[in-house]
Amino acid sequence: MDVIRSLSPTLPPAFTKAHFALDIFAAMTFLCGEEATSALTGCPLNMHRRWLGWYNSPGSYETGRALWHLAKQGNENTIFHHMPGNAMVAEVVWEIDLASVFWDGWWSGLHVGDYIPSTGPLAALLLKRCRETRSRAVKGRISRTVYVTIATLGDMADYRQHIAIQSHTPLICGAINIGLSLFACGTCGYFLKWYPFVPTLLGIVVRGLAYLCIGTGEVVFRYPKPLAGSPPGDGILGDDQDFILLQGNREIVNAITRGEFFLSFQKWKHSRLAIQVCSTLFHAHAIVQVFCFPQSDLFGKVVVIIPIFITWAYHLWLAWFDEARIQQAVFDKVVGQPILNRFAFSNRTSAVAFLLSAAYVRCQPLEDHERLEGILDALLPPNTPEWKFWKAAIV
Description:
Elements: H1 2-7, H2 13-16, H3 33-41, H4 60-73, E1 75-83, E2 87-97, E3 106-109, E4 115-116, H5 121-131, E5 135-138, E6 146-152, E7 162-163, H6 171-190, H7 194-215, E8 218-222, E9 235-238, E10 242-247, H8 250-258, E11 260-265, H9 271-292, H10 298-334, E12 339-345, H11 348-361, H12 369-379, H13 385-394
Parallel strand pairs: 5-12, 6-10
Antiparallel strand pairs: 1-2, 2-11, 3-4, 3-9, 6-12, 7-8, 8-11, 9-10
Helix pairs in contact: 3-4, 3-10, 4-9, 6-7, 6-10, 7-9, 11-12
């Protein structure tokens, strides 16, 4: 055995006597990234939040990766602006499409016959508001519950193209995070605790620059505006469980079904490069935090960890509560307050019959008769003789 040990290679003393270690605190750079990214990308909606990003937080790796994908999604678009005197000016801007589909519902128009297989975020927010509305139960044959909501829409709300709203989170919360991070950084520097000092200072600088960079963008809402004299925009939003009958003019219906949100950078021509640089800095901060922070002693770790946990709680608040209120505020700013009447049917057949009866009241009898038959066939596919007889009686 001693012979085998004597023949085995030995490591240099620099490796055998090293005190380098990686502990569980290094994992915080990979945790809570979704909440940190949500807080960062939401700052264009609030002009004050862009100045409140000078603090250290967990989730640097995930935030850097999200910013890199964000930069890759952007495209240069040509936007036309109407100027006084009927002049038109073209401007090239860099935009990122934010219109992710939260609800994969379809849209079918009653007057024009247009069909959209997947609607946008305002339709998802409308569905959320419908589901929060108390429904009236309609008795019938018991099967799977299907909901029908009649949404009476008003005119388009008076809003600006650039969406900016007031956050419900007090600005003092962001100021507290900044103060705690600066206090932790200053304390580590005063006691010469360089291992926690370096990643804390780098995290403050990187996140502050990223907030300023993303904060230069503006959230823009666009939708196709109808021609003068267009027919009403009545139609049906639906999926397997919910049907929403929209009743209103073509403009507001287009905003709900086809509206898109963009993060537009018109004031900074090098926004894509700036976001990529911020992404690289976040990744660099993650690496520095992984290797430096575990080498600190207990005092340095405690001083830095306490502000990070408070920051994590702040991000959770922004992601869970403030973001939901912001979404509803955006919906109110664009759409207004629709009148909702919601009904719960015990089976799909009764729900479809009621839905088409309510839709037929506002349709032209001759023009939309065949269109209602097509919608009925799509909602209730069976075409046996008995079903055909029932559908003919309904229509």
